[in-house]
Amino acid sequence: MDLNRRTFFRVLGATGIAAATGQRLAAAPPGGSLTEFSGILYDSTLCAGCQNCEVTCAEANGLPAPTATMEAGVTRNTDEAHRTVVNTFTTSKGEAFCKKQCMHCNEPACTAACLTQAMYKTKEGPVIWRGEKCMGCRYCMVSCPFDIPKFEYHSANPKIEKCTMCYEKMIDGKKPACVENCPAGALVAGSRRELIKEARKRIAANPDQYVDYIYGEHEAGGTGSLYLSGVPFDEIGLKTSIQTKSYPELSKGFLYSVPTIFVLWPALLLGLKEATKNNNSNSEDHE
Amino acid sequence: MNSPGYALAKDNDGKPFWKFIAGELKPKGKFLTPFNIISVPVMIAGLIIIVIRFWKGLGEVTNLTQEVPWGLWIGFDVVTGVAFAGGAYVLTFMVYILNMKQYHSLVRVTVLNGFLAYVFYAGALLLDLGRPWNVINPIIGNSFGTSSVLFLVAWHFLLYMMAQLLEFSPAIAEWLGARRARKILSGMTVGAVIFGITLSTLHQSGLGALYLMAKDKIHPLWYSEFIPVMFFVSSIFAGLSMVIFEGSISHRVFFDQISEENHKKQKNIVRGLSKICAVAMFAYFTLQVLVFIHGKRWEYLDTSMGYWYLLEMIGFVLLPMTLFFTSYRKNNITLIRVAAIITMLGIIMNRLNVTVIGFRWDQAIRYVPTWMELVVTLTVIFTEIWIFRWVINRMPVLRDSPSWVKDEE
Ligand code: SF4
Ligand code: SF4
Q1: ipTM, 2 decimals?
Q2: Looking at the domain assignment, is residue B399 inside a domain?
Q3: Cα(B152)–Cα(B157) distance, rounded to whole angstroms?
Q4: How would DSSP label each residue in A177-239?
Q5: Chain A contacts of B209, Cβ < 8 Å?
Q6: Strand partners, A129
Q7: Structurally, how many domains does chain B consist of?
Q8: Do A253 and B197 meet the contact criterion of CB atoms below 8 Å apart?
Q9: What's the start-to-end Cα distance of chain A, in Å?
Q10: Quick one: B111 exposed, middle or buried, by C-beta within 10 A (0-12, 13-18, 19+)?
Q11: Residue B232 sits in which domain range?
């Protein structure tokens, strides 16, 4: 009976899609791709590990100036006071750096999770957090495969902190603070499509220097933050277990079946009720 | 409310309405019972902790981390509590839809229990919200996150509470002596039941679906795309075990409330429930085995998490299932109750394995709740029991309806 129910779920999924139209499951840009998603390309081979991006990020977002310096073997994490961190790794090719921040997924798990649309995929690409909507349930944190949204646990008016790709500056036509202030030119901002092209060009021009892969092109259904590296990506602390399907895809089947169940269940129950109407006298149990 | 108001005054020994209510609000019975002696200090401590929590932030009283943002309050209070409250939809399904009338005497107490569980356990969600003043956002519709499973679950909680209140409302009307209101309200029961079962199907499974996106974070032995189905099927026997367990306690504590006839029926009822539990558990166990084999999970078995998984599956699913079967055969009520308790422990284990124990199991520093989280959880449970007891002692829940109800039917 239970497996049937599952297939039932699946079959209904198809009808459910029709019933659920108007329901934006993944935050694709409204009204089709009028604007292209923006992104940031980080080239680990160019990064000098100066941590300048950390400093300017904190300045731009009114966060305390970072004090910790990196250390090989210690992976620092972003937290409620640090939207981006740079770590150093001892790799097969010697020392390498890696910057960590929100990936700005094309179909973010966090926005699909958010029940108030506080976590929001803008049509320009950055994923932003809107405090006036957020109820602090932290479901975005549970869902984000990269563990990016951070919560202020020691505040009576807690915020969710995460990189916003400096969305406000972007609307003014400016570049994100970290990109603007990277002295080594390891960060490039632009449209995601163009960044991927650029990344390919770099790999093609220097095939010995790079791993032939762009991290973020397919991870989690594609992300706005893109990475180039000279060593395998797990050596610089990037999660390689990330699936290539988008994460909201995982709960889509369930959500699609909901409207259908809502229509079919009551009808079914009423039918059952009619069918068993004359069982009153029969006091033996029977399921 | 004019004419029912009049009826009220008349039906409650001519006392004016407010006097009647004031009288009912007073505690009844002895105060210094063991339960009170334990629960009152805990509840006071809990309230203090809740004040600190809202004053200084969640981190002050909980051990939650950036990696484990949901702990005991969600994993136990909400997810496990709601599974136990599943008895209400299963019983109303049996009685009102399948017309298994012999279970009718259980409906009210179970629905009451379910309703209070939702109010308190789902209410515990509010304690966990960092910005609770915005809780209204997903409800008033200025920012519907319709793609969110949590959005769905929250709405269903709300609607289901209303449906349950409707299902229970005839008892309130009988307590108040409001005849007209009772008639109207009981006319709506079947509608509320159908709506309620639909909602329950969706949010019992929805609680599991909440964790679908946390694919990389939950131990593979507990994660599968079938979590929603597992949660739904297990809520059937979780709820019924709770009914059996709760019934065995009520029948002792509220002995004087229950009519001779219902006491006699009790045995058959419990037996019937145990059979249903056994069947549902069999389905659940089969499903678990299928998922295990399908997911090729053998490699995980010979690890500490694997042993823990085996203990859950064999000790807390297979064993109580067998107990339910045999004790049904042998008509052994005590054994059925033992099976119900083991089943409930198994449900707690299972829900916590998905939400807390198996969540980020690979972390060096694991989340373990603080004593304060535990105290708040106990406070939630005790408050629920207090209200439950208050209602049972006043409204016709376990005891038979007042005689005028029969006359009218
Ligand atoms: S990395 Fe996480 S927080 Fe950033 S967009 Fe993706 S899901 Fe959201
Ligand atoms: S914590 Fe805020 S942003 Fe995150 S899912 Fe909840 S409401 Fe949305």
Answers
A1: 0.89
A2: no
A3: 9
A4: HHHHT-TT--EEEEEHHHHHHHHHHHHHH-TTTS-S--BTSSGGG-BSEEEE-SS-GGGGT--
A5: 251, 254-255
A6: A119
A7: 1
A8: no
A9: 12
A10: buried
A11: 64-251+267-361
Identify which of B377, B387, B409 has the alpha carbon closest to the alpha carbon of residue B77.
Answer: B377
Taking 50 as the threshold, does the pLDDT of residue A52 lie above it? yes
Calculate how close chain B gets to A179, using CA atoms only, in Å.
Answer: 26
Q: How do residues B239-272 score in pLDDT, each as one tens digit?
A: 999 999 998 888 888 877 888 777 778 888 999 9
Residue with tokens 């005991």: B72
CATH of the domain at B283: 1.20.1630.10
- Tokens (6 digits) for A52: 């300048």
Give contacts of B205 with chain A, Cβ < 8 Å. 254
* Domain edges within chain A: 30-248
CA atoms within 13 A on the CB side of B79: 29
CATH code: domain A30-248 is 3.30.70.20
End-to-end CA distance of chain B: 22
User: What is the length of chain A?
Assistant: 287
Cα distance between residue B88 and residue B111, in whole Å: 5
Question: Residue of the nearest CA to atom 5 in ligand 1?
Answer: A104
The CA distance from B313 to B297, in Å, is 14
SS (H, E, C) B43-102: HHHHHHHHHHHHHHCHHHCCCCCCCCCCCHHHHHHHHHHHHHCCHHHHHHHHHHHCCCHH
Neighbours of B186 (CB within 10 A): 19
CA angle B298, B301, B304 (to 5 degrees): 155
* pLDDT confidence tier of residue B10, bands split at 50, 70 and 90: very low
Residue of A nearest to B95 (CA): A273
Is B375 a domain residue?
A: no
In this structure, which amino acid lies at residue B58? L
| Cβ contact, residue pair B131, A135, below 8 Å | yes
Q: Which residue of A has its CA nearest to B216?
A: A145
CB atoms within 10 A of CB B293: 10
